[in-house]
Specification:
Blueprint lengths: L11 H4 L31 E5 L2 E5 L5 E4 L5 E5 L12 H4 L1 H7 L8 E4 L5 E8 L6 E8 L7 E9 L25 E4 L5 E5 L6 E6 L14 E4 L6 E9 L4 E8 L9 E7 L27 H4 L4 E4 L2 E5 L2 E18 L4 E9 L8 E9 L5 E3 L14 H4 L1 E7 L12 E5 L4 E4 L3 E5 L5 E6 L2 E12 L4 E10 L4 E6 L6
Antiparallel strand pairs: 1-2, 2-3, 3-4, 5-6, 6-7, 7-8, 9-10, 10-11, 11-12, 13-14, 14-15, 15-16, 17-18, 18-19, 19-20, 20-21, 22-23, 22-29, 23-24, 24-25, 25-26, 26-27, 27-28, 28-29
Length: about 475
């Protein structure tokens, strides 16, 4: 039995060009997969784990769901209430956390299996309008629970009447909000927890791999980025033995439909940093200006933005196919297939605060940065395509670098069989040296990524598409504007 959480496992195959095995060597053009079947689930802030062939996601409000294929989900639990299968009596079992945080609910949970074969849930609760939070640990023999409380690990938001262990007092501009944990093993088998949200930033702690609890004498741990109430949260870590980097995924902005939530990534050679973005900027500098709250303009230039608000457009207007405030992701690598995924929740254009789980396949470009395919996972294949298959009209979507509630919408371009690009952007396209890497050379720079047939939900068909990233970390998506026939 293997429990795979995308951490220090052998993910080199997923992180070669195109997310396929073979080290980027040419392959036959992939065929068109069978039509997928989707079943939706609502799990805010999903953290993924594989157990005995079933994928599980755990999130806020004691929500959880499972799937055999990452497309059709079954809800397991929903809501902090008596009878929840994860924690049958949460108000009594987790009373200490709820009382400290002055709340009746829980935020983003993370579950990992340790060497004793048991499942450890890192739960957290927060008042919401302040960083008064508690982060604790619970354990279960079965992944679906019930989990038994092992007590609190960290607290935040103390007032001046309660000093910290080092004698100082809690300062929300520099100390973390103790929520949003992600627990992972590094390449050397050491156990860590990265956590934090708004307030003083994102921190990392070394954990005891036997107990799952923090090693003594660290306090809140080491700061990785953020501060001065900047809107950066939901850290999730992975290590690539192919690139030798640790990748730190983050969510910027606010999680509501008008909050501009989005997924970004930075990387480091060590799990505890220092982290940089695609331009080499130090992520420790990603913080709000002193004396500010939610200073989005100061943090916008930092981190590679993979996805934000968007909606595709057709000739008869916008089709509603898009995301609003996608974020709080986890990541997963399937060692057998060599595929890698981002797993997150999102809201949708015109649907208010309703949210669902989404999974997208991900691949690494030759600059060592991940790109996210522009269609939800539907067993699509990444590969090399013939010029006559690539050629056609596309919608080109630029995710930009801003934090905004604005919904990004595409512009038309045409990819020609001779390798040129025309329309709202001009330039050239190619598969680099016959490899799976797809390249766009436009007026504003060179973009590298992958090409695939992705599922178009509005057409209910697979269409040609690409996802590319510039050297500076700007993400472009392209999707065929007209349905392609097999």
């Amino acid at each position: 039995m293997e429990i795979r959480k995308w951490t220090a496992l052998g993910i080199a195959a997923a992180l070669t060009l195109g997310g396929c095995t073979g080290g980027g060597q040419p392959a036959d053009e992939p065929g068109i997969p069978n039509s997928p079947e989707f079943q939706e689930a609502s799990v805010h802030d999903p953290s993924i784990l594989l157990e005995s062939g079933t994928y599980y996601v755990f999130g806020s409000h004691l929500m959880s769901a499972k799937s055999d294929d990452l497309m059709s989900w079954t809800q397991i639990s929903n809501g902090v209430r008596p009878g929840n299968p994860l924690i049958p009596d949460p108000f009594e079992e987790m009373k200490e956390a709820l009382q400290w945080a002055e709340t009746q609910t829980f935020w983003a949970a993370d579950v990992i299996r340790l060497a004793d074969g048991k499942y450890y849930m890192y739960y957290n609760a927060c008042r919401g309008d302040s960083p008064r939070s508690a982060l604790g640990l619970a354990v279960a023999d079965q992944i679906e629970g019930p989990y038994e409380d092992l007590g609190l690990l960290l607290r935040s938001g103390m007032d001046m009447s309660e000093p910290l262990p080092d004698g100082s007092f809690y300062d929300a501009t520099i100390h973390p909000n103790t929520v949003d944990p992600d627990v992972f093993f590094d390449a050397d088998g050491k156990l860590w927890m990265v956590y934090g949200s708004y307030s003083g930033g994102i921190y990392i702690l070394a954990l005891d791999p036997e107990t799952g609890k923090p090693l003594e004498g660290q306090g809140y741990g080491k700061k990785l980025l953020g501060g001065n109430h900047s809107r950066i949260e939901a850290p999730y870590m992975l290590y690539s033995p192919e690139t030798k980097y640790y990748y730190l995924f983050l969510s910027y902005g606010g999680l509501t439909a008008d909050g501009g939530y989005q997924i970004r990534v930075a990387r480091s050679e060590k799990p505890d940093g220092p982290f940089t973005d695609a331009t080499g900027q130090a992520m420790l500098d990603a913080k709000g200006a002193e004396g500010t709250i939610f200073d989005d303009r100061s943090i916008e230039p930092y981190g590679v933005k993979l996805v934000g608000n968007f909606e595709w457009e057709e000739s008869n207007g916008y089709d509603g196919n898009g995301y609003v405030s996608p974020g709080h992701n986890s990541a997963y690598y399937d060692e057998e297939s060599g595929k890698a995924f981002l797993v997150f929740h999102t809201r949708f254009p015109g649907r208010g605060e309703a949210h669902e789980v989404r999974v997208h396949q991900m691949a690494m470009n030759s600059e060592g940065w991940p790109v996210m395919l522009p269609g939800r996972y539907a067993e699509e294949l990444i590969g090399v395509f013939e010029a006559d298959t690539v050629a056609g009209d596309y919608l080109l979507l630029n995710h930009g670098q801003d934090i905004t509630a604005e919904i990004k919408r595409p512009v038309p371009i045409r990819l020609h069989e001779d390798g040129t690009v025309s329309g709202s952007a001009g330039g050239e396209w190619s598969f680099v040296d016959g490899s799976r890497e797809f390249m766009l050379e436009l007026e504003d720079g060179i973009y590298r990524g992958v090409f695939a047939r992705v599922w178009d939900e509005s057409k209910e068909a697979f269409v040609p598409a690409f996802s590319v990233l510039s050297k500076e970390g700007s993400a472009l998506w392209g999707r065929a504007a007209a349905q392609e026939e097999a």
